[in-house]
């Protein structure tokens, strides 16, 4: 998920843009620049208003009525992932019944997951993939459950194995998105908890990492009530960190994790030492944005765009309208009728794998759409990809994870832009992310951007694909925050 909306007006206006000769440019740029200056003056005048926060509120998402205050279970319980012969046999029987659908010639990944390559994936899944071994991999980090607002919250909590005397350990909450899971962070966790061992630094910045599963994902219980959105999630994760004994902590997120951690910073800024994101959500609606977009194609310096912004942002229609439309069909389904498609996916492991793994192709690199295998094994192993799919399969969480879109998109999206983020913020802009947000635009919401890095490579699943790059950027950001 990337956008709050795709304004139709932009397409009709931007489609008329053609190269201007010099006199035409002047005729357009002068009045447009005047409008832009007036808009910036208005923004400056409004910026003096008192800082607002999102009301924390409270909630109950469990089944039935809420127990009396003081009667809720607040214990933190160790948890271990398990499997069984019955679970594996059921999976194998379903894989054996895979019904192949021929694709058109030259389809590659343009029509979705290539069925010939899917047949290879299913064969590997059935005959070589070892789920018991992968369960051991998943259990190498400590897992826990705790009940908050009526639902069981799953999380992993990894502390450094050794901390020199006098060394401060920073708590870092990392939040995944869809169709990922807590497993996305398995490669980056050791880089953050033991950086010196992995050649990242001298050990001056060390973290203990907490990775919760969003409620309705993986081993976190789904809400039993309507309306569970990112703001409710933000509140629950604040309560989780408080229950773990943390008063101040760093946050990191991409995809839904970006929205959730942003809401956390908007809700309790006094608890958030710093916010690091590898995806930002900024509304593209409004006359001011449209004017800046038009100007940026010709005089980027006037609207604060860098050369790299221009390279990633233009041609605007292709990169910000057509690409998003091409990659967001799933979003419209999940934001409207998630249960219809979800129930089918929950019953078919092959359908589930195709639906999830296709995103790890084009969201990692748009050019992978042209490859028969979707370029999947050039960035990930089949064991890694299928382990993430299995987390959805064994927990039957695909439907509830899809419902998260409906619960969020049924609310007014402007609430997220109305409350500014004033905590120190770091942004890692990966070049293959579906949309690029120029640094100057991020400041509309994030008022204290300490670092903004144009990452050299990588896409949507940053921690999974480029853990070392992301870990280094997080550390550089935290160093700067600690020096403030």
Q: Mean pLDDT, nearest integer? A: 89
User: Radius of gyration, rounded?
Assistant: 23 Å
* Number of helices in the DSSP assignment: 22
Extended strand count: 9
What fraction, in percent, of the residue positions are helical? 40-55%
Query: Which stretches are low in confidence, meaning pLDDT under 50 for 5 or more residues running?
Result: 1-50
What structural class results from the helix and strand content?
Answer: alpha/beta
Shape category: globular
Distance between the termini: 33 Å
- Characterize the main sheet: 9 strands, mixed
The percent range for strand residues is 5-15%
Strand order across the largest sheet: 1-2-3-5-4-6-7-8-9
Folded structure, characterized:
The protein has 484 residues and is α/β, with parallel strands linked by helices. It is 44% helix and 11% strand. It has helices spanning 8-14, 22-46, 85-96, 115-127, 131-138, 189-193, 230-243, 256-267, 287-296, 307-313, 316-327, 329-334, 338-347, 349-357, 359-362, 376-379, 382-395, 398-409, 415-418, 439-442, 462-465, 467-483, and strands spanning 76-79, 143-148, 151-158, 169-175, 206-212, 249-253, 272-277, 425-429, 449-454. Strands 1-2-3-5-4-6-7-8-9 form a nine-stranded mixed β-sheet, sandwiched between helices. Helix 20 (439-442) links the parallel strand 8 (425-429) and strand 9. Helix 13 runs antiparallel to helix 18 (398-409) and helix 14 crosses helix 17 (382-395). The longest helix is centred in the first third of the chain and has 25 residues, at 22-46. It is globular, with a radius of gyration of 23 Å. The relative contact order is 0.15. Residues 1-50 have low confidence and may be disordered.
